[in-house]
């Protein structure tokens, strides 16, 4: 399934927004944290897991989805949230912990919930999969349209939740796609050191579903393979497991010294940064011009700037509002 | 229990639960049931009996032995418009799936600022006394009630079981519904006859988070939940024969906890015994005692707890029976108060 | 790897002991439970999971093991314990809850621990696998000999613990064998209704280890396949996943009405009861004579009777001993 | 802390833990370490730093993200002659692996009648205050301490951390060793300076199950653990300036719980405030209060608790900081007592 030119441009634009968003967050995150880095300080405290490099996984999948489809994500959710259409201003405000944030600041960066576009996540490794299976079941039972997509890291594929959820999806033949973002690291532990086989997509055999491995961190290839899977799911053809080779251009979280990375790995990855790669390809294929690119870059920056400004300008909830929303 | 006694219609807790679920399933097609052996078998403890027959395998679904998956799935389904009633067969198994329960089911509403709701019921069996060993006899009331974001309820009789199950299904919040095996009315588990009471046929709710004075009295307050209530009632009758008027409070809900009802009672009686089949330390008994004393209620004697000792539950009957709470232990606790 | 005549006889004799033991337990279990069946009553209270029909899984594997090898088992442990050499008297006494039992009556039938032969189990589905992996690791680290064997049911293969432990064993290439007893039922739920594929042995692919399915509930076939796996493990060749087709001739536990079983299934299984089948085969092959069989039967009954008598005659621990052995 | 002050050698809790483990690994080749990122990285919280370098990947093993597997494996290894020290990175993750912890690690000794031991240490980080959100900031002290068969300890300073880690490794029973992130001495988590204290170089044990009076006083007893101790000490100093003599008790162990030390203190002071960063209800604070009142200790005022409210931990700094215990809240609790 090949993306149209329009779809390719959509993917490129969302990759830009995602990357600029992360770059903005990265910068602001460090405010108040120098010279001594203390996670508790600054306008954005706590852990921060950036998605730089993984944008293809977000756009290549979400290009096939509408707001009514369900996406569950992980501790590293920004790129996926953006591609899924989560309100950027409300998400930025959430990351800042502001009252205008998606949850009024109760959740934070690892807990992005936007029911308008059916997006949610969990900071616990492996816990994106069960809820996606449940949402898929709910769609079938309610005879509502829509598929569910669960994102997880390659490290999460060694968590028991993965196995249980995939088996259940296989038994019940639910419209759910499992998307593994294989950035080859789980914090400091490599895929090779933690996973008994090379490709998690081969594990699909255990669940009676097709498994696909997508090389190259390429949005177009992802669009293609995932498109088949989603079409199959929409037509009652059941679940699919997809593993996408991608790259983590940043540390696991901000503050990560990354001493565990083999020398040169990061530089090598930077050289195949998917955004310039895609740009060049779009240029070469005549889909993108310098002028259009400049406009998209500007547009993306404007969106991000607006969201960040909104977040900055917003107020915190009153402290005692912490007591609200435990129950509804 | 302010039930009007039309025609006596005594049900077990198991049947009351099944009836409640069936009635909600009839009026709300969003309600469905998931769990191990809850389909054709009707639940190991009988509380889904008849549902598969009436509603079929789509709405009454047996799952693989994958608690993390199906409870996680219930969270996802609940937030997508459904109202799952899921069963964790024995509460003792919570350790294989607690993240889905306490970090997702219980917290997603908060994490979403109330924009995402998780209207689901997790029903699970508790308790021992029939020699099922240390991984199949626990209550772990406090383990659930300690953690925020979920309601935790546990009825002691069929009337409450039906009303609280209906209230739980209708509640937009996640509710953990604990049922004690010895009260379930399954003959093969023994049967506490006093748990089998009149249950009106029509659907009704018993408000979650409200304790009830099951037996009024003036000399001592005995607070319990599930089996503890029945131990308390038996003790109260024996004490009554000795001229002591014991008030028995059935908490019914562990969270929200109805401290007011307990405090009112102890204000009247001045004496407090708390009974719990869950482990002694860091448990419900401590929470009740602390709640009463921090409220400054004047006491005529030091409060007492009758709880399960801090040991894994032994299999052998003599050891297990020795370790369980009992009417005798409650009476001994009362006698100890007299010495104070 | 073919069993010697001696080994075949060993297997047959242990199947007899196991079956007679279960038959004895079955009878005693019902004492005090009629006319009204109440699990709490009688000399053996609580749940009771009999292993009738699954004896081949026990003997075909344990014929390769010595006391120093480690075996972990499940809620249905008697047959495996017997084949592994657990003290029959102390086990019977444990099942009765007596002071002379393996734990003095603290554990009961789902908690059989005999460190003399490195046998243990857990009543929680899937929790036999992690400890076996750890024991295998311990053997490697201590440079002690011995392999570990984890038993589990086919239903347990859908529990997250299974996935995690097999992956870790695969990554670390540990001397551990995973033996799935596929009796096709998890309480009332069939394998087909709970498992996305036909054979769990195919899941070995996910863990980079060999997977074998053994049909026919045949001790000799089991001996053969498992023998290769154990030899490989002993020689540093890493783990293996084995699934054994077997049959549950009794209910899930005693008191099970078994209404969920398809009509005729039980009768059909009874016809291929592995004990008479093996007896006939041994006879046909001239390994067993009527006289020898009668002697083995008598011997097995004697062992069981002695164990049961020992259990009956033993005292209960004093109730307050419940407080002991929480810590050592 | 009866440490002889030779030469001041101040260590963080992180370094004290790593030193303790290294010393035991040098003298006992059965000791090994397993967990996520505890190898080359030295542990996300620094408490295994240097071990991989010194002992190599065989004895200091990074695991897959498979807590059930590696904790289950630790149980199996411990019962096969090894002494595993395993790390659950954040205690908040216990929900994915609690069965291996509470139903196996904690109970196998009992199930075997003491014939099988499980000499392992499960170390795990607790606590918040640095805006890590509701799945990375919890303490859940009571969740662990409520369940029988495991020791649960939590030091508040580096001296205790080293001595209790050594005692834990040498203990033939399973020990859960909780370390609070804000006390860990990792700059990037903020640092409670008073947790960084003199630590003798030679190996020593601090007995598990013993509380300690960290600051003597006569007017009120403040009981805490980990961060609660430091909140208590700060409050005590402020109260001291106001002429109130506060005694601070550091529980150090949640199980076994040293009720005697607390009771002795309250007998002297007649007033009790319990501080805990864990959730309010069914928690440590209730257990301490109940233990004191059931012992019949005469009180001059109703005891008070300063605990985390029964809400998931909010991310935003103003909400989180508002919800945390603090010296100010302790002082307010004391002032409330004066009104009684
Ligand atoms: C159950 C659980 N265990 C451990 C962690 C700590 N943790 C957070 S991210 C992470 C690595 C995850 O690796 P992967 O799934 O590959 O995702 P990535 O970070 O590479 O996006 C770990 C171990 C957690 N959050 N939950
Ligand atoms: C985690 C967990 N979930 C559920 C159960 C209840 N249970 C006990 S046995 C059983 C069926 C197990 O099936 P299988 O693994 O095939 O073993 P079998 O009983 O057939 O020997 C179930 C669901 C349990 N003990 N532990
Ligand atoms: Mg990764
Ligand atoms: Mg089975």
Describe the structure.
The complex is a heterotetramer, with two copies of chain A (328 residues) and two copies of chain B (340 residues). Chain A is α/β, with parallel strands linked by helices. Chain A has a single domain (5-79, 124-287), classed as Thiamin diphosphate (ThDP)-binding fold, Pyr/PP domains (Rossmann fold). Chain A is 42% helix and 10% strand. Chain A is built from eleven helices and eight strands. Chain A has a six-stranded parallel β-sheet, with helices on both faces. Chain A has a two-stranded antiparallel sheet with strand order 5-6. In chain A, strand 7, helix 8 (219-234) and strand 8 form a beta-alpha-beta unit. In chain A, helix 1 (5-30) crosses helix 3 (78-84). The longest helix of chain A is centred in the first third of the chain and has 26 residues, at 5-30. The model of chain A has no long low-confidence stretch (mean pLDDT 98). Chain B is of the alpha/beta class and 340 residues long. Chain B has two domains: 10-198, 3-Layer(aba) Sandwich (Rossmann fold); 212-339, Rossmann fold. In chain B, 36% of the residues lie in helices and 19% in strands. Chain B is built from twelve helices and 14 strands. Chain B has helices at 13-27, 51-59, 67-78, 98-105, 108-111, 141-145, 158-170, 227-241, 259-269, 284-294, 317-323, 327-339; strands spanning 10-11, 31-35, 60-62, 83-90, 121-126, 151-153, 175-180, 197-198, 212-215, 220-224, 246-250, 253-255, 272-279, 304-308. Chain B is globular. The relative contact order of chain B is 0.13. The model of chain B has no long low-confidence stretch (mean pLDDT 97). Chains B and D meet through helix 4, helix 6 and helix 10 of B and helix 4, helix 6 and helix 10 of D. One thiamine diphosphate (TPP) sits between chains C (75-76, 123-125, 153-156, 183, 185-187, 248, 252) and B (36, 65, 67, 89, 93, 96).
